[in-house]
Amino acid sequence: MVSANPLFRGTWTARKFQATVINDIWPEVLFFTLIATMGEMTSHSLGISNQLLTVLGTVLGLVISFRTSSAYERYQDGRKMWTNIITASRNLAQQFWIHIPVERKGDSTSLQNVIEKKTMINLILAYAVAVKHFLRDERGVYYEDLYPLISFLPRYANGTQGTESDLLPLWQESDEPIRQTTQPVTEMERGSQSTHSAATVDPEKGLAHAFDVNPPLKPARNPPATTLLDYIPLFRLFAWIAHVITRRAHPKRYRGKKRRHDEYVESQIPLEIILILSNYSAWCMRNGLLQPAIATGVTGNLTSLQDTLSNLERICNTPLPFAYQAHLRMSLWLYLFFLPFQIYSAAKWITIPGTAFASFLLLGFLEIGQEIENPFNYDLNDLDLDYFCLAIQRELHLITAHTMPNPSDFIFNELNQPFAPADRRSAKELTSTTEYQVPDANTAPGFASLRRTMVKGWKDIDILTRQ
């Protein structure tokens, strides 16, 4: 996601121009500029009436503005949905880690109970990662940032003795059966599998080692290679003609800069992870490990994750209707084609730069709308889903690093001054006596003295913060 000017930050590369729409619209701008030049160079008068210029230009500008606004609304909705995922993940992890007790009745040990809770919190991270791959139309579970988090889940409907025909839905994304060995993949091998380009962070290093898996694990971030077609869109026409002549099947998925909306994309992996988390919360409720109020919060966060997935799926799988896009683009082309002939009589040679600027302006806004319509891919203007997942990973580890101490272990010590600035004595000093007494010796000890200290503290803070 580009929020600052990328052209003059860091090492300059031609790929940085993909943060703009220049490489997408320059052939069209050049074409209409040549049309204007042709009108200037001919000896015949090609000027036509400009009576419709103002009316059509205003209507076309409003339609393009609506197109761009609707695309930006989808972009903002996508960001809001990921905010919901981050918030619900954080809340759910806190509820699991803090409110599910470690000390329980039964045969389980404290260590087993901590491992149980940490495993479920890792599944919350797995959910976010699975949503990321789903939005990028990356099927299956065999990715370096997803598979280590869920590899322990049941693989067969009939337990460990099941056969390939008993594979659960989670493991049926790949046509090849999975085979595992007990040799972990080394760091060097993991590095050779990764195809991160210009990445400063390797998210897989923070995960458990994945065992040697067949099929091999794909990298967590696998953007499509930039080709000449991304810089010269006109060549896409020749590529299509070549496919027609050679009678080769067109690739099912376009591996260029933007993802094609040619089929409905779905994935049951995030849903199955939600089912596992829901099953765990139900198990905790049945065994009395969650209080009713906390259980309600857990259910609400799980529902929020599920609703967010549905909304993201709506954004990802609902492009603007093709008829609207085609009609708008054809209307704009016709307008720009006749524009130089309508302004030639008044503008003369200025028609050439004027037409170039008008086509750059209008085609640019139209292309921006198409650019941000689906904000979940690898384009420089898309949302940084990898950053969101890494942020969730950091926050979940921060939550599980909390040791859940007894409040009395850290409250009543000499570093805590609860009544400052009115009374700067430490909590240890204050609790050395049975009743509180304000530093003013003329005041009787007790709650009246405590209230007087609170009022004095408010007055002191009110004065200090207003100076």
Automatic annotation (TrEMBL):
Keywords: Cell membrane, Ion transport, Membrane, Transmembrane, Transmembrane helix, Transport
Domain of life, source organism: Eukaryota
Cross-referenced Pfam families: Bestrophin_2
Any Gene Ontology CC annotation: plasma membrane
Localization (cell): Cell membrane
GO molecular function: chloride channel activity
Membrane topology: Multi-pass membrane protein
Chief subcellular location: membrane
Stated name of the protein: Uncharacterized protein
Taxonomic source organism: Hypholoma sublateritium (strain FD-334 SS-4)
Organism lineage: Eukaryota, Fungi, Dikarya, Basidiomycota, Agaricomycotina
